[in-house]
């Protein structure tokens, strides 16, 4: 590979996972070859590829970086088991603390139970469809069950102050943003690992 193209690729493909880097190197190399066969000099052909920094930013929105792909290549099943045990313990503690007052129990139980249900649903999704997409999606949404449970508890608890009301209003938007970010990240990781035959 010649100097102008190599220098451009070093910037444009910086930090991308190896599989994505190899794929894009082949594509850009073919593009430059076609351009030179059409009569352009190599520097002119490389210039048609655009600003390598902007290309790098665009590619990072499509493919995972090397660090991100390595982080989610293998699911951490132990982490999920520990999290499940902690959440079951948290739900049990809420029940024990409010056994004497039925009204308190009814107010404090729906939140933890909803969170536990969401956690089990995420685990079931990962088990039924064990792909890099579901592993990454689940890992990026670890706090979703807890935060949703807290939101439901705050929603049905009387005597809310301004801070509670702010929490009730802001949290749903934050959770939607978190889910969307998790989905986009999971797609990037899955797309990248698929190139390497690991998805």
Automatic annotation (TrEMBL):
Q: Cite the entry's keywords alphabetically.
A: Membrane, Transmembrane, Transmembrane helix
Q: Which domain of life is it from?
A: Bacteria
Where are the bilayer-spanning segments?
Answer: 79-99, 105-125, 137-159, 165-184
Pfam (any one): HAAS
Q: Say yes or no: keyword Membrane present.
A: yes
Name of the protein in question: Membrane protein
